[in-house]
Write a structure and sequence with these properties.
Layout (H helix, E strand, L loop, with lengths): L1 E3 H23 L4 H18 L8 H4 L4 E7 L6 E10 L2 E10 L7 E2 L5 E4 L2 E4 L1 H15 L1 H6 L2 E8 L14 H6 L2 E3 L3 H12 L7 H8 L21 H12 L4
Parallel strand pairs: 4-8, 8-9
Antiparallel strand pairs: 1-2, 2-3, 3-4, 5-6, 6-7
Helix pairs in contact: 1-2, 4-9
């Protein structure tokens, strides 16, 4: 669902129940827990975009920036909660945002990178989840490959104030590359602004439309590429992110 920032704010503030129903229709996910998560997390994100801290990014976050809600990765069963689409320094750029309305109190780092200990069980680290989406787009998304677009990813926690457990060992590198921002925390919100200042600062409606309509680009000529051996197969990548999704909430 491709929207401008201004349309997103309007639909959240004036018609949130209708927006949630539209997302249920889009995704087929009609459970009460999912609806409650959308109803809680989307207003938190919309409110954060209005924060005066975002003023330096007014060109994008003021009105004309684009975002896609519940974007389904081409040829995949995986959905990105939100993809912010625009440009930085004149180059197309996308920022994939994983939203988690989690109670993080009591959460602890898991035994290995990519797993966290929460509620008495091991859960997929949300940064690892978004890393899979980012790398998938870098390798296979038609709009990204054709425009040599930059793709970034982060996690926005919309409920609690602290996410320390998500950046402690063994997750330091994972959280550095795909950081978690508990946006109810003013300091974390400031860090989110800094994150976007070096990644997504200008609107680019044409790139947003190409991304939304994108398809899976497989390199038919990969055998002739000097770096082809480093590019994973599409089937293996789809399998890996689908398996990871089994650990999602």
């Amino acid at each position: 669902m491709l929207l401008t920032i201004s349309d997103f704010r309007r639909r959240v503030s004036e018609g949130l129940p209708d927006l949630v129903r539209a997302l249920q229709e889009l995704t087929g996910r009609r459970g009460d827990d999912e609806a409650a998560a959308w109803a809680a997390s989307l207003p938190a994100v919309s409110e954060s975009f209005r924060d005066p801290m975002f003023q330096p990014l007014h060109l994008y976050f003021g009105e004309r920036g684009s975002l896609s809600l519940e974007y389904r990765l081409p040829a995949s069963s995986s959905w990105c909660d939100m993809v912010l689409l625009g440009a930085h320094s004149g180059k197309p750029s996308a920022a994939i945002v994983e939203l988690k309305h989690w109670d993080t109190r009591g959460d602890r780092p898991g035994p290995v990178e990519g797993l966290v200990d929460r509620q008495g069980a091991l859960w997929l680290h949300p940064s690892d989840q978004v890393r899979g989406y980012v790398e998938y787009c870098r390798y296979f998304h038609s709009a990204v490959c054709e425009a040599a677009a930059m793709v970034h990813g982060c996690v926005v926690l919309t409920r609690d104030l602290d996410a320390a457990a998500y950046s402690l060992a063994p997750h330091q590198e994972l959280a550095r590359d795909y950081p978690c921002f508990p946006i109810r925390n003013p300091e974390s919100r400031r860090q989110l602004v800094e994150y976007f200042q070096s990644r997504l600062t200008e609107p680019d409606a044409a790139f947003a439309e190409r991304f939304e309509a994108g398809w899976t680009k497989t390199a038919a000529s990969s055998e002739t590429s000097a770096s082809a051996w480093r590019v994973p197969s599409l089937a293996r990548w789809c399998s890996s992110i689908t398996s990871a999704s089994a650990l999602r909430s």
